[in-house]
Amino acid sequence: MRAVVMLYGVMSYLLFFAVFLYLIAFVGGFYVPIHLSITTEGGGTLALVINIMLLLLWGVQHSVMARDWYKKAIETVIPHHLERSTYVLVSTITLAVVMVLWQPMSGEIWRIEEGALQVVVWGLFALGWTITLISTFLTDHFDLFGLRHSWLHFVEKTYTDVRFTERWIYSWIRHPMMLGLLISFWLVPVMTVGHLVFSIGMSLYIFIGIHFEEQALVKAVGESYSHYQKRTSKIIPKIY
Question: Is 175:138 a contact under the CB 8 Å cutoff?
């Protein structure tokens, strides 16, 4: 049974990573059949409503399953060593649904075609994803995506919470992962109306999510996190 739990954790992680790579292409507008740079003449009110509903689906699922009250409610069905991998799996499937069912919309907000400026924007786009990925390793990448839970169960060791630390980027800002995502969602050479809707929706979710995450961290970590909040900015060093 422990091997099955380990396999479940690994498969959830691998599926997440595949969908994460697809997300990069989906946002950047390359190599996938449906992406945010596609426009259509018929993408009007119905497309907007569908896309907003998809974003709400993502936001509600991602937020509800992360709350402590939800985890306590399901712990008799999904034990702790499976909870994180299940969260990752369901979040991954939900994100895949958002991308597959996304409706192209008409219109462009901007299009950068000048060579040097386009290179700069693509560089910032790549930097955003890099910041996001690096930030996961500065906390505990494998705990964040459920592999540590599965591994500790596999080797019959008791799970312990990851100790709060202020490593590198985290000594300047509290949410570098979110900063990286915001950079990548917004800094693209082609901003279509559909991409704008996606970026606004995801940005709103990020800021709302940060609010609730910080409340949870203050509760979990205690006074040391409250002091950390006073010393650092949320997303932009010295600004916000």
Answer: no
